[in-house]
Design brief:
Helix content: 40-55%
Strand content: 5-15%
Order of helices and strands: EEHHHHHHEHHEHHEEEEHH
Number of domains: 2
Distance between the termini: 38 Å
CATH class of the largest domain: Alpha Beta
CATH architecture of the largest domain: 2-Layer Sandwich
Shape: elongated
Length: 290
């Protein structure tokens, strides 16, 4: 789903649906009914339905009470759910630094999810991953007919600024673990011209040196591969109970994949493509050669 889902006067978001799905899974594992859960937080059965479907923002006291009722002893897992709830509330209120993004709603929602994630696996057949882009490369993409276009120079700079702020997750107190597999075409395509592309490749070498980054290149000579259909990103979270969430890009839109079976299938596609790719040290040699 690429936009906030409207159900009458209710609205769900990717974050809300994710949080609701995890609460539903915990309730099922504890063999509790919706009515029992409603009694714990002094609410109606319909409120539990709305919470589990991501239709309403959730209060921290309700989440804590339900986690205790469901027997969730892992304090870190509870903290993860509270963080999802906070981000969801900010998303609904149009808060959070990513809300300044001129990108369409689906990408704004992706940035919010990325901010909450602990690990990202991304397959990119034609572009350098956004987390690894230089300002010059990102700016060239923003004015490209293929990716934008944004005509207002101020809006273009906002696009670039958002991209650079996302990269703050690569460092700091809770660095994002990133595993990227990039097709060789993305490295040879002259986005912005040769000087800009050279700077981008030099930056890739710097990023690949980070301990929390793994970068592999799928070379042309690998031939056919499992991920030949298009780019996607798998977002993972700290809590043991948390499912992966996948964003897959199509020509017309971005699609959210939010069920365990499909998420596992994307994970398998990624791993098989990674096995077809060059090892990181050989990928770095190829980048240096280019």
């Amino acid at each position: 789903m690429t936009r906030t889902t409207q159900l009458g006067n209710r609205a769900s978001t990717v974050l809300g649906r994710r949080l609701g799905a995890e609460l539903l899974r915990l309730r099922d594992a504890a063999a509790r009914t919706q009515q029992q859960a409603a009694d714990v937080i002094t609410a109606t059965n319909s409120k539990i339905v709305k919470m589990e479907r991501g239709w309403v923002p959730m209060r921290d006291p309700d989440i804590r009470a339900l986690c205790e009722f469901y027997g969730l002893a892992d304090a870190e897992a509870t903290t993860h759910l509270l963080e999802l709830a906070r981000l969801d509330r900010e998303r609904r209120k149009a808060k959070g630094w990513w809300q300044d993004s001129p990108h369409p709603g689906s990408l704004t929602e992706f940035i919010a999810m990325e901010d909450a994630a602990s690990r990202v696996r991304t397959w990119q057949p034609s572009l350098v991953p956004g987390l690894f882009q230089t300002p010059e490369y990102a700016r060239s993409l923003a004015v490209s007919e293929a990716v934008g276009p944004w005509e207002d120079p101020a809006e273009i700079e906002r696009v670039v600024d958002i991209r650079m702020r996302r990269q703050g997750r690569l460092v700091g107190a809770r660095p994002l673990e990133v595993y990227a597999v990039v097709w060789e075409a993305a490295l040879r395509q002259l986005i912005g011209g040769a000087p800009i592309m050279r700077g981008q490749l030099e930056h890739l070498l710097e990023v690949a040196a980070l301990e929390n980054v793994r970068l592999q290149v799928l070379p042309f000579h690998a031939g056919g591969h499992p991920c030949i259909t298009g780019p996607f990103t798998i977002l993972s979270f700290n809590a043991t109970e948390a499912m992966d969430v996948v964003q897959a890009d199509t020509i017309a839109c971005s699609v959210w994949v939010e069920n365990e079976a499909a998420g596992s299938e994307y994970g398998g596609l990624f791993e098989r493509t990674a096995r077809c790719s060059l090892a990181q040290r050989d990928s770095i040699r190829l980048i240096e050669t280019i």
